Design the sequence.
């Protein structure tokens, strides 16, 4: 019992966090090809708004909108009606695609108050999936001439483990990306990097990235010779992302970077790097903008601004020819693939 309540509280916390960031509206503009209409009868208005928001989140990943009854004159894919009865909510689903009517009584006595909206939204989603399951099976057996007349039902990319109360665990999203980067520091340091990053997005909002790349700088020129830096960079990023990745999405967080540099003079007889090998530690704030592509891919552009905690410099004995110190600007461009 205690573990079930803790699980519901965790799910409710994620739902409240998403609403606090203002990312998902309670009802959309009904511009998708498929949408459902949600009605409430005797349901508390605040609870009804929360159910609409959570249901829009659940269905949004499959390209389905949740609309108000007067938002559009088009025929919806389904009508969902909620009726409150003491500690039970009656859910009635009128499926306009399969011409079925299904329902469910959802007891809320054992569900914490801050998790009831999410429980109702999941129950509606499960009724909709069950109603469309037969249509999904028939699509593979239909004759070629009849397939164009059937309404397309999206495949589900994730498996959902559902218990008797309708709660589920969504696996984290994993991606692998190739990226091209640029680093700039005020003391004659400009470098380019090429590498890869592995990203985990748990809870649909979490953002954890581990990256590694090779790095080479533009030569810093002086009258006594030039200095070149080359080496490796490793990054660790943690933050939050927008939940809906069907359209342009954003991420933000903090990053710690560890670099290894080999500093050398291109003319050793005249300009020798006093620090030949050095480690650099940086901390920065990161913002990412993503652009989804077909086949579960995405382009992204990233900006990082931070400071050097442990720096390095190369001198000719009296002057600094190149230094990685102070404020550092980083830009990354990449292409990621969902695993």
Sequence:
């Amino acid at each position: 019992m205690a573990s079930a309540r803790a699980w519901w509280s965790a799910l409710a916390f994620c739902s409240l966090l998403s609403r606090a960031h203002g990312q998902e509206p309670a009802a959309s503009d009904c511009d998708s090809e498929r949408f459902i209409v949600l009605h409430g009868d005797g349901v508390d208005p605040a609870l009804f708004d929360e159910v609409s928001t959570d249901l829009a989140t659940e269905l949004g990943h499959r390209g389905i909108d949740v609309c108000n009854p007067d938002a559009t004159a088009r025929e919806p894919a389904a009508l969902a009606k909620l009726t409150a009865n003491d500690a039970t909510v009656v859910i009635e689903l009128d499926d306009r695609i399969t011409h079925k009517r299904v329902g469910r009584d959802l007891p809320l006595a054992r569900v914490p108050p801050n998790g009831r909206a999410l429980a109702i939204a999941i129950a509606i989603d499960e009724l909709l999936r069950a109603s469309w399951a037969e249509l999904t099976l028939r699509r593979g057996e239909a004759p070629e001439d009849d397939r164009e007349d059937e309404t397309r039902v999206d495949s589900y990319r994730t498996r959902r483990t559902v218990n008797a109360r309708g709660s589920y665990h969504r696996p984290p999203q994993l991606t692998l990306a190739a990226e091209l980067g640029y680093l700039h520091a005020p003391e004659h340091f400009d470098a380019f990097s090429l590498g890869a990053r592995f990203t985990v997005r748990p809870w649909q909002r979490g953002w954890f990235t581990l990256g590694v790349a090779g790095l080479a700088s533009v030569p810093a020129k002086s009258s006594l010779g030039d200095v070149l830096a080359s080496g490796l960079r490793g990054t660790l990023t943690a933050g939050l992302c927008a939940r809906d990745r069907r359209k342009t999405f954003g991420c933000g967080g903090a990053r710690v970077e560890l670099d290894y540099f080999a500093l050398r003079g291109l003319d050793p007889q005249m300009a020798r790097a006093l620090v030949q090998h050095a480690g650099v530690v940086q901390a920065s704030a990161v913002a990412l903008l993503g652009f989804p592509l077909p086949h579960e891919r995405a382009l992204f552009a990233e900006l990082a601004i931070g400071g050097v905690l442990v720096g390095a410099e190369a001198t000719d004995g009296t002057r600094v020819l190149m230094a990685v110190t102070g404020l550092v600007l980083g830009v990354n461009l990449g292409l990621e693939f969902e695993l």
User: Anything to note?
Assistant: The radius of gyration is 27 Å. The longest helix spans residues 116-141. Helices lie at 2-20, 45-60, 116-141.
